[in-house]
Every structure is written in C-alpha cells, then in structure tokens.
Amino acid sequence: MKHYGLIGCPLGHSASARYFTAKFEREAIDAEYSLYELPDIGAVDAMLPADIEGFNVTIPYKREIIPLLDEVSPEAQAVGAVNCVKCHDGVRTGYNTDVVGIRHSLDKLLGSEEGVKALVLGTGGASQAVQYVLAERGIEFLIVSRDATKGNLTYDDLTPAIVAEYRLIINATPVGMYPHTDEAPALPYEALTGANLLFDTIYNPARTEFLARGERAGAQTINGEAMFEAQAEASWKIWTAGR
Fold this sequence. Notes:
- By secondary structure, the protein is α/β, with parallel strands linked by helices.
- It has helices at residues 16-26, 44-47, 74-79, 98-110, 125-137, 160-165, 209-216, 225-240, and strands spanning 2-8, 31-37, 52-57, 71-72, 84-88, 91-95, 118-121, 141-144, 168-171, 197-200, 220-222.
- Strands 2-1-3-5-6-4 form a six-stranded mixed beta sheet.
- The relative contact order is 0.13.
C-alpha cells in the first residue's frame, strides 16, 4: 500500500482525506491518504511515515515547508509557496498545484470577460498563488491586508469607489472557514452590486458568509470547491508521474 497525506494545522476543515479515499476506492488504487496535524513545521519528519510517496501542504506551512525540501519547481519558486510535495528516492520536491485550481476557477467565473481589476484579500500562501495567476492573466490587482506594511490597502481603506473599480474580489484568507462560519472579511458589502465577482478559495462551508453577502447584492460568485478538486488531481498526477 502506498501512503499519501496532508500536513497543516488545523485540519478539521479539510476534505482531502475524504476526496482521496473515495478516489482510491473508485479507481481500485491500493493507497491511503492521512491527515497529519503538525504542532509546528519542525515536526514534519517525525510525523510523516518514512515511505510516504507524497503529501499536500495547507495553512500555515505553505511557505515554511520550502527550506525543508531538496528541490522546488520553478513555478513554486516563482509563487513563493508549496502545497504539494513529491517524495522519490529520498528526494522531496515541492510544487504549487493551487495555481492549477485558481486558473480553473477564474476561467469559470470570468469566462471571456476582459479588463476586470481585482482585490486580493490576504497575504499568505494562497494569496501568493492567486497573485501569480492574476499576473499571468494580465489582471491588475491590489492586495488587502490587516497589516499596512504587507499590502497595498488595509480593510479600513476600502471604499464603495474601490469595490466598484476593482470588481473581482478574491478571499485568499481563512476568514469564514469551518468552524468559524459566521465570520467574513471586513468589506463594505453594502457597496457590492451585480457587477462584482466574488471568488472564495474556501470550500468548507460551500457557501461562506463572504459569498452569501455577495449573492444578496447580486454579485456572481464561486467557492473553492472547483479549485480544491483541480489542485488535488494535479497533485495526484505529480505524485504518480514516471511510476
């Protein structure tokens, strides 16, 4: 039996084990996928089985894992975050499959629309992947952070005029994720209209408070489910390539 898994903390929100277990049963693959909730990144070697073939990485370790890897793909280096690690012949190589999921989700949300500008909420690993894909698509964006030194704007800076100009708003923070489902990023939601497009990288719950408020204003929305599934399948391709 082959072993795969997910490292992060906390992991109560994650659907990864359920997704891969169903995949393995459906495709008759002799493998298991386990969750490894690490107290800190230094515990990774002690907690992961020695024969693990690959693992995913989620908050808060997408950047912290990089110094512990032997190699990092050029794309993951450009993003500055790793969410997928392949283990082969004693070598750990980091990749970023979040970008695959983000591309897929933006294609679904934007269609052929051009000229849109974006607000990216958050500055962590998911935000870095979002920024990479937006730059790749030539979409102008501003980063919104609670810390004025880390972004272009703070949440207090957001005005109706800004959300009207930057119509695409992407939540790349864990705010609103299970179990804190009543929370939402601090936006001027009353200023949203049917012209806005909201993308939440969270998939649990499927309808976050962020998206619910956008829907009530008539905005088009997409949650993180399509992103999650696309990045999971991209991870599987990486782990099994050449084997």
